[in-house]
Amino acid sequence: MKVTIVGNHCTWTRALSTSFLINDELIVDVPQGSFKSLYRDYGLDNIKYILITHFHSDHFADLHLVIDILSRRKGKYVILAPKGCKERLFSIFHAFDVPHLKKPVEEKFEFLECENGKSYSLGKYKIKTYKMIHGSLDAYGYIIDDGRVKVGFSGDTCMCNSLLKIIKKSNAIFIDASKIDENLNHLSVNEVLNLSREYKNTTFYPVHISDATKKLVKDFGLNETSEGQIIYF
């Protein structure tokens, strides 16, 4: 599996928010500002599937721009996201005065709604969804299984049982490391460090980092990630 880190930061930084390309054909999260990089640096020619972890702007806001490009091309697409994704998109189309996108979305895009612990088949990929704890929001983490390797994506979450399930079942995980202190919305770098020590069979890649946690990731000897980095599993 080829994982391209399109962005690896959180909202409160100058760098691009967290987003991934899997084998150049599957996108995990489309944060504000990511469209420029996805379109200019990587292209969208091979995209077939889009996964959204939750509906905060730093994970979802540029989805309508990606849809605009894909809607002009032949083929069908699948979006796996928390419940209500299609309705939210239609609201965005109205707010941004792009009502023409509604018709191609109805014709070309299949929407699958996440359920905790459920598996979905997207082409050669088996995707398993886990409900995370991110305040009161409906948020999900994923395990992407390509038949050779299982890679986890925590999305935004605090410590919870679903996160531990993803870690235990994955060969590697891209994990939220937003905060210095423990809280009810995000993981702290100390928590990520302790998890990496406990689950030694899983490789940890801290993402969704802030300017402060970026330094801690380095100081703690965790795997550093960067925008544009490509990791092969």
Low-confidence stretches: none
Nearest-integer average pLDDT? 97
- Portion in beta strands: 25-35%
Instruction: State the end-to-end distance.
Output: 5 Å
Q: Helix count, per DSSP? A: 8
The CATH superfamily name is Ribonuclease Z/Hydroxyacylglutathione hydrolase-like
Tell me the radius of gyration.
17 Å
Please tell me the total number of domains: 1
Examine the secondary-structure arrangement and name the CATH architecture.
4-Layer Sandwich
Q: What is CATH's topology name? A: Metallo-beta-lactamase, Chain A
Fraction of residues in helix? 25-40%
- Helix and strand element order: EEEHEHHEHHEEEEEHEHEHE
Widest β-sheet, arrangement of strands: 6-5-4-3-2-1-13
DSSP strand tally: 13
The class by helix and strand makeup works out as alpha/beta
CATH hierarchy, class: Alpha Beta
Structural description of this entry:
The protein is α/β, with parallel strands linked by helices and 233 residues long. The chain has a single domain (2-232), classed as Metallo-beta-lactamase, Chain A, CATH 3.60.15.10. Helices cover 29% and strands 28% of the residues. The protein is built from eight helices and 13 strands. The strands form two sheets. A seven-stranded mixed beta sheet has the order 6-5-4-3-2-1-13. Strands 7-8-9-10-11-12 form a six-stranded mixed beta sheet, with helices on one face. The protein is globular. The protein starts with a strand and ends with a strand.
List the helices and strands and how they pair.
Layout: E1 2-7, E2 19-22, E3 26-28, H1 34-42, E4 49-51, H2 57-60, H3 63-70, E5 77-81, H4 85-95, H5 102-108, E6 109-113, E7 119-122, E8 125-134, E9 137-145, E10 150-153, H6 161-169, E11 172-176, H7 189-198, E12 203-207, H8 211-219, E13 230-232
Parallel strand pairs: 3-4, 4-5, 5-6, 10-11, 11-12
Antiparallel strand pairs: 1-2, 1-13, 2-3, 7-8, 8-9, 9-10
